From TrEMBL:
Pfam families cross-referenced by the UniProt entry: CRISPR_Cse1
NCBIfam families for the chain: casA_cse1
Organism: Myceligenerans pegani
Protein name: Type I-E CRISPR-associated protein Cse1/CasA
Length: 555
């Protein structure tokens, strides 16, 4: 096969390749230049998988950040070098999008050749001339996240969907692979000094794959981009913007890791948005037919919270003991827990060595506290991957969202944040008591005392039933003077929902549960199990019980 000869460009600046939804809900492809020009008429970036959308959003943020280095206009109140230094400068960007787009167009024109997907020397997000030591190429399944472990089983993609793809789709998967590729031993590229017997040992997943990715979602893509253009000075962080370069402004990639075998340290958010975790070359002619995929630049995750804004960070005791100083690691998303149940990782805490909330949400708090934006709530979207054994496979892709009232993320309303966290804990406690009740019902009806199925099912039922109620209640947290009333209202709702589920469980228990039996040395039947459950539930929701007693006394 003749590969890319003569050179036929695929120009990402002007060729349509980014999948988007417009405000009418129509799915279309646009170019890099058009995605900025039309951002106010687009709803969102979409992709083959949600993580692809997030990876492309981070690419756009890198471009926007670099283009924002140039002045918009003196009358806009920006600093002389154009970089937004405070919220007033940020507001100038938000309110002068046409001029921002002009800067983006100038920037893309300046670096135009580096956005050619098929350039023979500097192909976008690839290493020109990359070859395996042993020659050949791999199938496209290696870069397609919905093909498990690169194999075409258990997937809807068959036939030409794996053996070839358009250059536009390949561009999307290329960005996704640099962000989320699985870990594992890779075939060595020619010239890679790390090669041993034709292989390179694992260096971890792509950088974004190590995160519990979070971003603020606006009504349009333009709003989404500006909301996520975090200004570190506003939240007391310092980034060397002059040195914080994206991949296309750095030297052309070779098979060797940048910075030598020991690698290099990331500089700032732009560097992380475009981190080259892999060395890749797409191979094809009129379509992409194969890929060379090798290990690239390794990046340890410890304490990157000063430059990575789109994840929460958890304090790690084992890592702290290992390194002899406080260490925070990216908090990954848990596919078994909806985002609302992980609310603690999103809100600030005064506890020492506590989690660090995502900086993008801290920035939103500043926007809300200072009334820089008129929004009444913040929409947070969470996107991530749960990897399988040794991070070598993709087990699950996570996509969730949560609406937060502006008052909850504003920095001067910690009392509302404390209430929200108590409410999550109360839901967890009530679900636990329901699970124990279901377990007792199952046992007293003759079920296996070692089985966890009924308990797990009851817990899932509780969380599924409480979730829509919590989301609605959460949006009502707007007045810190009504803490008692708000908390009582929530406890009443939890009590009613969980009691209704418990009544259904009792109705399903069957005649044997009425008689009961001996379970681990004591008699258990439906009546006793119900009495125990109601007592423990009441203990967990004291404000609800006080309210009900008040209502009963008034009758």
């Amino acid at each position: 096969m003749t590969i890319n000869t003569p050179h036929t460009p695929f120009d990402l600046v002007n060729e349509p390749w980014i999948r988007v939804l417009d405000l009418d809900g129509i799915d279309r492809e646009v170019s890099l230049a058009d995605v900025f020009r039309r951002a106010g008429q687009l709803r969102d970036i979409v992709g083959e998988v949600p993580t692809q959308s997030f990876a492309i959003l981070r690419l756009l943020l890198a471009i926007l950040r670099r283009a924002a280095q140039e002045p918009i206009a003196p009358e806009d109140g920006l600093t002389t070098d154009g970089r937004p230094r405070d919220l007033e400068d940020w507001r100038a960007i938000r309110e002068n999008w046409t001029r921002v787009v002009a800067n983006v167009e100038d920037y893309l024109d300046e670096w135009h050749d580096r956005f050619d997907l098929r350039h023979p020397e500097t192909p976008f997000f690839q290493a020109g001339g990359l070859e395996y030591e042993k020659g050949g190429m791999d199938r496209l399944g290696m870069i397609i996240a919905d093909v498990p472990n690169g194999e075409p089983f258990l997937t809807m993609r068959t036939g030409t969907g794996v053996t070839s793809m358009s250059w536009s789709e390949a561009a999307r998967w290329l960005v996704h692979t640099q962000a989320y590729d699985t870990s594992g031993v890779r075939a060595a590229a020619k010239g890679d000094p790390r090669a041993k017997q034709g292989k390179v040992f694992p260096i971890g997943t792509g950088w974004t794959g190590q995160l519990g990715g979070l971003y603020l979602k606006g009504k349009t893509l333009q709003e989404t981009l500006t909301l996520n253009l975090v200004e570190p000075e506003t939240i007391n962080l310092d980034v060397d913007w002059e040195a914080d370069l994206p991949a296309w402004e750095r030297p052309a990639q070779t098979s060797a890791p940048e910075g030598g075998i020991d690698g290099r340290e990331p500089i700032g958010p732009v560097d992380l948005y475009t981190w080259q975790a892999r060395r890749i070359r797409l191979i094809g002619d009129d379509a992409v037919r194969g890929v060379v995929l090798c290990n690239g630049d390794k990046i340890p995750p410890q304490n990157r919270f000063t430059i990575e804004f789109q994840t929460a960070w958890r304090f790690s005791d084992p890592q702290t003991k290992k390194f002899k100083y406080d260490v925070h690691m990216p908090r990954e998303l848990d596919p078994s827990r909806s985002l609302w149940r992980g609310l603690q990782s999103l809100l600030s805490s005064s506890e020492p060595r506590s989690d660090i909330p995502p900086k993008v949400l801290a920035f939103a708090g500043e926007l809300m506290s200072r009334r820089v934006v008129p929004d009444t709530h913040v929409s947070v979207r969470a996107v991530g991957i749960k990897y399988g054994s040794n991070n070598s496979t993709i087990a699950e892709i996570i996509d969730d969202h949560l609406e937060l009232p502006a008052e909850l993320v504003a920095h001067d309303n910690g009392v509302l944040a404390d209430l929200a966290l108590r409410a999550v804990a109360q839901a967890e406690d009530a679900a636990r008591e329901l699970a124990r009740y279901a377990e007792n019902l199952y046992r007293c009806a003759g079920g296996d005392v070692e089985s966890t199925g009924p308990r797990d099912r009851a817990r899932e039922l509780a969380f599924a039933a409480l979730e829509p109620h919590f989301r609605k209640w959460l949006l009502g947290l707007t007045d810190s003077r009504q803490i008692t009333e708000l908390e009582t209202r929530w406890q009443m709702r939890v009590h009613r929902v969980v009691r209704e589920i418990s009544d259904d469980l009792a109705g399903e228990a069957g005649p044997a549960a009425l008689v009961g039996r001996q379970v681990r040395g004591r008699h258990v039947d439906l009546g006793l199990a119900t009495a125990w459950f109601r007592k423990r539930l009441a203990d967990q929701l004291p404000m609800a019980m006080a309210q009900m007693r008040t209502k009963e006394g008034a009758r």
